[in-house]
């Protein structure tokens, strides 16, 4: 196998040109074999095989710096930098990350996980290079989906001022996770005649610069290039901004990619290469269903279908169903997603009520302020978003929604530990940063029925409100407890003495298991479902701390600024006798791995919590 000859960085340069296509095919087969077992990002990686090979053939790593936007398409890069053995433990705890990690390899120039970041990071690396007097190349790769994020335009605006080399590769596959939307997508589709213009412009400029007074002619022509360009092209927005545009080029043609990269390396300015690729290329199921096989669970290689047994409904399914019902009864209800209709479960709402559904692309900040405008106009917007991505819109939540006290609902999916995607995707901060904002109300359901009830409550609520729920199977226990939701009030599930478990959302299930374990050991134990994180039920906390020796708060969130810290502060300032034991995530990022393993490592699984409670209780 040709792939067997790739054992370390730059080995690809020893491969004969006539074997490039064979190597590309072997890489695809390797990725399909491995990801079908471990799960991971499939479609984006299959579409970037030749593109990545061309980059590695054209540059010298680790001296040259390659920045992958989002980074989930970096699997071929990892293969070509000697990390083949790491794929057996891909995205497992202690194993290789599914994203670039500087601590994993010197060839990973920048840690990424969220979109629209690579141009800004690359521009920083360019400036650092020049200030230090170094002479390497910097290449930022960004997808057309990520180009809908405003941060990318902020970076392009600054990159346009460069008088030094900076290469931006626009990987255009017309997809983010789902199919791209909006004007950027339409614009990129229209640019298909750029190569004749680019070749003519570069050839003419080079020729004129080699004749007497040719430079003056070049400058004169540059003054008129805009009007000439419009005769040749259907728009050249990047050039008008001040960034040299090359392409489009077939991203699956290695030879053509090498040629255009060679041109780009000679330029003393920012240059954008428009690369056309096909997401999922070379694997029929991924080509037919790019969204489904974007982030894949272990699957059958023949069909591309998941091999896991049919699971119970997850929280996203529950949210999806209740949104359809609410949309039927409330004509003012509208739904917003940032490029994730399937991931957030809004695809069903989209099918039923297309005029009330809005996919804003990868643009969380815009999505939140857009929702604020919808609310100011008299509608009831629901913003469905993953917890880790909502972080990107903190200022918009604070400034555009909460200062005006607008009735926007935030349906926060993937809250808490999400597992294999690691640090950049764990939803461990939302309780803390949302709690800091005046006018914000925060709820978390204990099971699937309570999620449904909370969404109904939230849609009727007349101020900003967030409902946060975890990834995975929806808990169907404790169904005998379904008291009506009252603003700011918790729900007492079991009332005894000595120890009080005060649990938030997903941790209610764990708290029930902890209580059962403690009961078997002879401890008397109450259990309360917090329901509301903000406002906290101070009356319940007061009574609980007065009647129990130990109050244990449990949340799948960082401790700093979280629910437990609020309870601890309240109990101490109220001079109550109980000891408070906060169970939460410590002051550290949580890496990738199975959620059960991560909970154990973080000390928030049943066994770890029981040990902490007993140790604390016996010391009282």
Topology:
Layout: H1 20-38, E1 40-41, H2 43-46, H3 49-58, E2 65-68, H4 75-80, H5 118-131, E3 138-143, H6 150-159, E4 166-172, H7 183-190, H8 194-208, H9 214-223, H10 225-232, H11 237-241, E5 244-250, H12 254-265, E6 270-276, H13 284-288, E7 295-296, H14 315-329, E8 333-337, H15 341-344, H16 347-352, E9 357-359, H17 364-376, E10 380-386, H18 387-390, H19 394-402, E11 409-413, H20 430-435, E12 441-443, H21 448-460, E13 465-468, E14 491-494, E15 498-503, H22 507-520, E16 525-529, E17 532-534, H23 538-547, E18 548-558, H24 563-573, E19 579-585, H25 595-602, H26 606-618
Parallel strand pairs: 2-3, 3-4, 4-6, 5-6, 8-9, 8-10, 10-11, 11-13, 12-13, 15-16, 15-18, 18-19
Antiparallel strand pairs: 1-7, 12-17, 14-16
């Amino acid at each position: 196998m040709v792939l067997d000859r790739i054992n370390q960085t730059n080995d690809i340069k020893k491969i004969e040109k006539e074997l490039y296509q064979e190597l590309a095919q072997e890489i695809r087969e390797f990725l399909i074999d491995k990801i079908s077992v471990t799960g991971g990002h499939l479609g984006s990686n299959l579409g970037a095989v030749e593109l990545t090979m061309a980059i590695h053939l054209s540059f010298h790593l680790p001296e040259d710096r390659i920045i992958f936007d989002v980074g989930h398409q970096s699997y071929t890069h990892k293969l070509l930098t000697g990390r083949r053995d790491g794929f057996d433990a891909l995205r497992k705890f202690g194993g290789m990350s599914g994203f670039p990690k500087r601590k994993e390899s010197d060839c990973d120039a920048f840690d990424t996980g969220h979109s629209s970041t690579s141009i800004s990071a690359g521009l920083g690396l360019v400036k650092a290079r020049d200030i230090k007097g170094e002479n390497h190349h910097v290449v930022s790769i960004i997808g057309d989906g990520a180009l809908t994020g405003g941060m990318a335009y902020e970076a392009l605006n600054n990159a346009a001022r460069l008088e030094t080399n900076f290469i931006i590769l626009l990987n255009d596959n017309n997809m983010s996770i789902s199919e791209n939307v909006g004007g950027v997508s339409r614009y990129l589709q229209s640019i298909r005649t750029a190569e004749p213009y680019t070749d003519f412009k570069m050839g003419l400029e080079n020729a004129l610069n080699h004749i007497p007074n040719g430079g003056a002619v070049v400058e004169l022509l540059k003054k008129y290039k805009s009007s000439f360009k419009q005769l040749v092209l259907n728009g050249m927005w990047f050039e008008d901004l001040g960034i040299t545009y090359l392409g489009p080029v077939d991203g699956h043609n290695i030879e053509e990619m090498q040629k255009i990269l060679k041109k780009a390396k000679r330029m003393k300015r920012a240059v954008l290469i428009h690369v056309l690729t096909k997401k999922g290329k070379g694997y029929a199921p991924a080509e037919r269903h790019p969204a489904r096989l974007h982030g894949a669970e272990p699957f059958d290689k023949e069909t591309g279908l998941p091999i896991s047994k049919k699971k119970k409904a997850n929280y996203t399914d529950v949210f999806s169903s209740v949104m359809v019902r609410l949309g039927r009864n409330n004509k003012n209800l509208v739904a917003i997603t940032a490029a994730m209709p399937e991931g957030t479960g809004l695809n069903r709402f989209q099918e039923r009520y297309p005029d009330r559904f809005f996919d804003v692309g990868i643009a969380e900040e815009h999505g939140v302020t857009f929702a604020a405008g919808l609310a100011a106009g008299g509608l009831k917007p629901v913003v469905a978003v993953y917890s880790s991505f909502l972080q990107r819109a903190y200022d918009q939540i604070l400034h555009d929604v909460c200062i005006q006290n607008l009735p926007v609902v935030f349906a926060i999916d993937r809250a808490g530990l999400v597992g294999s995607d690691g640090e950049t995707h764990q939803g461990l901060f939302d309780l803390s940063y949302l709690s800091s904002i005046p006018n914000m109300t925060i709820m978390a359901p204990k099971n699937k029925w309570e999620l449904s009830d909370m969404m109904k409550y939230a849609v009727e609520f007349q101020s900003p409100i967030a409902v946060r729920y975890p990834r995975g199977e929806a808990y169907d226990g404790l169904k005998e407890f379904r008291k009506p939701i009252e603003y700011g009030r918790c729900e007492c599930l079991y009332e005894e003495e000595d120890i009080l478990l005060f649990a938030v959302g997903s941790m209610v299930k764990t708290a029930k298991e902890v209580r059962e374990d403690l009961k078997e050991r002879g401890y008397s134990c109450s259990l309360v479902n917090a329901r509301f994180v903000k406002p906290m039920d101070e009356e319940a906390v007061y009574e609980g701390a007065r009647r129990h020796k130990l109050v244990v708060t449990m949340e799948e969130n960082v401790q700093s600024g979280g629910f437990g810290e609020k309870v601890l502060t309240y109990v101490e300032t109220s001079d109550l006798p109980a000891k408070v034991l906060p169970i939460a995530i410590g002051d550290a990022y949580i890496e990738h791995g199975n959620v059960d393993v991560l909970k154990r490592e973080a000390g928030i699984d049943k066994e770890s919590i029981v040990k902490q409670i007993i140790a604390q209780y016996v010391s009282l």
